[in-house]
Amino acid sequence: MRNQQERHTHDYPHAGAVLSFLCFIALAVSCLSYPAEAGILSEDIRHQVIIQSDDASKALRQILLDWQKTLNKRAIPDNADSDYGHYRFEKDRAALKKLLQAEGYYQSTIEAAYDEAAQISTFRVGAGQQYRFGRISMEVEAADEVKLSAINVPDTKVLSAKTDKPALAAVVLKDVLIIQKSVEKHNCLFDHHTTHEAVINHLQHRIDVTYRVKAGLIATFGDIQFIGQETISNLHLNRRVQIKKGECFKRSKLNDANVFLKKSGLLAKTETVLPESPAADGSVPVTFIVTERAHRSIKAGVSYSTDIGPGVNAGWEHRNFLSHGENFSTMLSVATREQQLNTQLEKPYFMRRDQRLKVGGGIEQKDNDAFQTSGFNVSGGVERDLDNKWMVGVGAKYGFERIKDQNNTENVALFSLPLFMSQDRRNDRFNPISGWTFQFNTTPAVDTIDTRTTFLKNRVSGGYYQPLGAAEQSVIAVRATTGAILGASSDTVPATERFYTGGGGSIRGYGYQLVGPLDTQNDPLGGRSFVEFSTELRLRIAEDHGVVAFLDGGNTFDATYPDFYGGVLWGAGLGYRYFTSFAPLRVDVSVPLDKRSGVDDAFQLYFSIGQAF
User: Fold this and answer.
1) Which residues have a Cβ under 8 Å from the Cβ of 144 and sit 6 or more positions away?
2) What is the rounded CA–CA span in Å between residue 437 and residue 464?
3) Of 75, 101, 126, which closes a domain?
4) Burial state string for 447-479 with b = 16 or more CB within 10 A and e = fewer than 16
5) Structural domain contains residue 547
6) How does strand 327-335 pair with strand 309-318?
7) What pLDDT shows up at residue 217?
8) What are phi and psi of 66, to 5 degrees?
9) How many domains does the chain have?
10) pLDDT per position as a tens digit, 433-457
């Protein structure tokens, strides 16, 4: 029987990378199946590959077809000659054999022929019987000072390889990762290593697999030190790495620590240095060698729309303002109808690791069809991160402004307590392709000059993004937003606090703030409630270019809750996107589908940075 067995031992120090590569191979393999009856030839393909099989299963046929497609799509050197054709033929035959073995076909045959004149490689596969897993076992080897009973390894029952199931190489590699992650999670080991050995029984068409775990010394984290920082405090860096002396040693924590350091935005490079082995007491000192990046930056942008005209903004940011990772920013925005100057200081790790303190202030002046105002505000708040990307926040804000609307001129000094909760699961903030976002805000407010003016302002919004097709070149994006002001009538709510809809960030196709109640001069009055809907079909037609078709709808209402008196106004249009390294440049043209005589223009044009939502 021994001459009918093969023993395969594999060592995977980088099993994650191997599994990723195997997935790529499996995808390519899923390119190799082709019906036995025929092969489709193309005059545009040189060095074409045809793979055929009479006895392959349906699943294997699809794999072979996918692999064939992959091989025929690869680039061929312009100077390829007959020698290159023979070289590719031999390489493809060897790769095909490995592919079949990875799918459990260890007695497969390949009849190969190369037509040099036509530059066609033909492979006829005799799949044979697919091998299945036999006995699945686990062995543990520990360092001399460590008892085997002290090493926690997963039971074979939790592994993907099961007796009598198809013996797929991807399953074995997946198990290696499962074991490594489990050993890492449930032990405090300076190092550990997982390998596997496969014994192939050709008579029974079975493969016995033994997973072997080699465990090093039990260890804890020792002293943590940083080298190379110039302006960043050690306290802040220690907070970022989230490792404490005496904790269970895990190399995965070191990987996470490097990620957290880079995410700070303060470092250009990080490197971890460890001793060759733990100290006599089992402690492992850790040294992070870091290189700081520039902490200051300036930014600028422009915008334009036919309803509010051109606008420019410029800002300055310092990401390590007080040496503990504080972010100080200031932004100046100047447009035809409004001018703003805002500053903000954000302090991370405020009282706890997952919490931030934000304080800020600003001055502004606005002159639009709804109102004229000038004033200032100061604010402060605390934000906290929760599980699953949820965030909550509470704050306090005081603002003074002089407001002139259609009815009168008044001074308003609002004190408010904004609260919010949100979740952002988008894959990209400026150009989302998948995921969703949700936000709820509620803000009780009182006018400190006329204390009879109190109200509760609420707003709920959500967006969803769904790619179409595996290439993700097309995306459906939808957004819905609604709001309501409780506790006051429309005329007692300050004009700057009412809801307005219409414009580039709202319902495109209509003028800025012009969707909703209007006075006799067709100036917007605002309302106590509103609804907005937006749907976009985003098509990426080239690496840097895309087009968008969109439909927006909504309205503002005088009632406390949307009563849809006045219906819903709709706008539709087309857009162009130029994709840059940081965000797409956006140009949209929209027309009002419910055009009101004397109010709405024939179309609106918008230019900005980033997707509409």
Assistant:
1) none
2) 7
3) 126
4) beeeeebebebebebbbbbebeeeeeebbebbb
5) yes
6) antiparallel
7) 95
8) -65, -40
9) 4
10) 999 999 999 999 999 999 999 999 9
